[in-house]
Amino acid sequence: MTGIVVAGHGSYADGILSAIELVAGKPQEIKGVNFTKGQGVEELRENLKWAITCLEAQEILIMVDILGGSPFNVAVQLMAEGVGKRMRLVAGVNMAAVVQAMYGRELYSFDELVPLVVREGKGGILEVPELTA
């Protein structure tokens, strides 16, 4: 099973994982990493590295809140360095994307999962009138 790490600014990771637990139950092999006010990038790096290495999975999907932010940049650095696991990174994730990753990882290969997660995340953003059209 693919491991999942959700990271973001503030309490983004805790918030999205809390919402998912409320709707879908507590997921397995998933960790959240918050980047809160007062933390430095080195602390974020250590927390993200810990989350990746403590998951049992050898394939890790890292999902971050925004392209170009500190969680994204640190994840890119860790991927370049390698931590003994195969990793993929998706930026700009929302709850729809994380739920797709959570359920899809048992149905699809690691390489098939990532485009599905991206598509679901994009598809989860709609203006309300579009639903009635």
The largest sheet is: 4 strands, parallel
Residues in helix, %: 40-55%
What's the level 1 CATH class? Alpha Beta
Contiguous runs where pLDDT drops below 50 for at least 5 residues:
none
CATH superfamily: Phosphotransferase system, mannose-type IIA component
Counting DSSP E segments of at least 2 residues, the number of strands comes to: 4
Give the rounded overall mean pLDDT.
Answer: 94
- Class derived from helix and strand content: alpha/beta
What CATH architecture would you give? 3-Layer(aba) Sandwich
Number of helices: 6
Order of helices and strands: EHEHEHEHHH
Keywords: Cytoplasm, Kinase, Phosphotransferase system, Sugar transport, Transferase, Transport
GO molecular function, one term: kinase activity
Protein name: PTS sugar transporter subunit IIA
GO biological process, one term: phosphoenolpyruvate-dependent sugar phosphotransferase system
Structure description:
The chain has 133 residues and is of the alpha/beta class. It has one domain (7-105): Phosphotransferase system, mannose-type IIA component (Rossmann fold). Helix content is 51%, strand content 19%. The protein is built from six helices and four strands; from the N terminus they run βαβαβαβααα. It has helices spanning 12-24, 41-54, 70-81, 95-104, 110-123, 128-132, and strands at 3-9, 30-35, 59-64, 86-91. Strands 2-1-3-4 form a four-stranded parallel beta sheet, sandwiched between helices. The protein is globular and about 45 Å long. 35% of the residues are buried. This is PTS sugar transporter subunit IIA. One of its GO terms (molecular function) is kinase activity. Keywords: Cytoplasm, Kinase, Phosphotransferase system, Sugar transport, Transferase, Transport. It is found in: Cytoplasm.
